């Protein structure tokens, strides 16, 4: 199916797939992602196999906004909501200290978790309608660049993905989300992406009140 199909129908199909333990290919404002139930360990192992990952695997999860960050992360600065208001929803993955100590496939050995608040309308609707946490991992083989070509994705994922949603707005050379780690008490851009490091620092400074 494509993003031009009725949105309600797409959301229903994707969420039914996920509730059955399936994996869906979905578009975001950056690249295609593999969306599944982040609490289902069998599905998490399936994601590892799809992405050809044999060792440690961690995925960010989609969230609706700052309130989710406050519920899933601890030791956040008082101004975190102001900081996130500058960059979310949008192409930034926030990494911070997780409240939940054990969450295989999501929380790292260092106790951190990644959160992604996408601005893509489909993802917004999926997160709003889902009763489980959804994975936000890119649709690519580990170590390779993500692809947006429908033919390539269809051939690669034909046996592993239960629902695929294509969107012409996803570009082959699109930058990934910027990964910002605030576990140390300051914004460390650990992966450059769509949002520039300067914009991250400016948003942090503004939220602190020193911008």
Task: List the main descriptive attributes of the protein structure presented here.
DHBP synthase; 6-stranded mixed sheet; globular; 211 residues; 4-stranded mixed sheet
Structure description:
- The protein is globular.
- Helix 1 (7-19) crosses helix 5 (121-129) and helix 4 (80-87) packs antiparallel against helix 7 (197-208).
- The chain has seven helices and ten strands.
- The chain is an alpha/beta fold and 211 residues long.
- The longest helix has 13 residues, at 7-19.
- A six-stranded mixed β-sheet has the order 6-3-5-4-9-10, with no helix packed on it. It has a four-stranded mixed β-sheet with strand order 7-2-1-8.
- It has helices at 7-19, 41-50, 66-72, 80-87, 121-129, 150-157, 197-208, and strands at 24-27, 32-35, 61-62, 92-97, 112-116, 134-135, 137-138, 163-164, 178-181, 188-191.
- It has a single domain (7-208), classed as DHBP synthase.
The percentage of residues in β strands lies in 15-25%
Which segments are poorly predicted (pLDDT under 50) over 5 or more consecutive residues? Answer: none
The main sheet orders its strands as 6-3-5-4-9-10
Helix content class: 25-40%
Structural class: alpha/beta
* Count of DSSP H/I helices: 7
| CATH topology tier name | DHBP synthase
Number of DSSP strand runs: 10
Shape: globular
CATH architecture name: Alpha-Beta Complex
CATH class: Alpha Beta
Order of helices and strands: HEEHEHHEEHEEHEEEH
Biggest sheet layout: 6 strands, mixed
Q: Kindly report the average pLDDT value.
A: 94
Radius of gyration, in angstroms, nearest whole number: 17 Å
